[in-house]
Amino acid sequence: MAISNSKEWYNKSEIDYFSAFLKLWLAFNAFYKRLYQHNASLNNDRKFIEEIKNNNNIVKTKFEEYFTNSQSSQAIEFRFYLSEFIRKYSGVRSGNKSIKKDDSISLKPQMNGRVVDEIDFSSFIHSRNNSLKNKNIRGFIKIEHIYIKDDINLIFPFFIEMLYMMRNSLVHGTMEPTDENHQSIKCCYIMLRILIKDLV
Question: Can you give the pTM of this predicted structure?
Fold first, then answer.
C-alpha cells in the first residue's frame, strides 16, 4: 500500500508572511542605510524613514512608476496588493481600520514631522468611491475598485509610514497572529518586495 504525504507537504508549503516580511525588511533596512551612508545625521530608523518619505529618491521613483501608468506585470501586481491593503486600512468608507498610536511601546505614527493618533488612507479615497463606476475623475486614479488621489507627494509618505508601522507592530509583538493580519502582512511583503527588487 502506497503512503501519501501529499496533504502533509501541502500544509507545510504555506508561506509564513510574518517571518518573510521581517526578513525582507532587513534587506530594506540594509538598502536605505547604504543609500544614505554619507548622511551622518541619519542615526536611527525613524530618521531614515522620514528621509525616504519626504524627499525624492529611488524608492519614490519606483513607487510612482508602479502606482501610475505602468502596465508591466510587476506594476499590475503591485497595484492589486496596494488596493487590498488600502481597502483594509481606509477608514469607515471601506475597511474601517487604522493604525493607532500605542504609547506603551512607542509605536507612534508620524506625518509631516508630527506624531499623529492614527493613520489610514481614508482622506485619499474619493468620498463617493462605492458609487463610482469606471469613471475618469480628475485628480483621482482608479486602482482596482478604489478611486484614490493621484498625488504621489501625498500618497507615498503614507505608504512608507504604513509599512513602517506594520513592521513596528510585528516586531514589538502588538500585532495579533490572526489570519486577517497575516493577509495584511502578505500585502506589505509583496509590495515591498516588488518595490525594492531592482534596488537591493
Answer: 0.91
Q: C-alpha angle 132/136/139, rounded to 5°?
A: 100
Q: Express each pLDDT in 23-65 by its tens digit.
A: 999 999 999 999 999 999 999 999 999 999 999 999 999 999 9
- DSSP secondary structure letter of residue 116: -
Answer yes or no: is 176 within a domain: no
- Residue 136 domain boundaries: 43-146+157-168
Is residue 170 within 8 Å of 185, Cβ to Cβ?
Answer: yes
Query: Distance between CA 82 and CA 43 in Å, rounded?
Result: 30
Q: What is the model's pLDDT at position 37?
A: 93
Residue 11 · residue 26 · CB < 8 Å:
no
The 10 Å Cβ neighbour count of residue 95 is 18
Three-state DSSP at 113 gives: coil
83 belongs to a structural domain = yes
CA dist 157 → 49, 137, 182 (Å): 9, 23, 23
Residue 73 counted as domain residue? yes
Number of domains making up the chain: 1
What are 87-101's pLDDT values in tens digits? Answer: 889 865 556 788 888
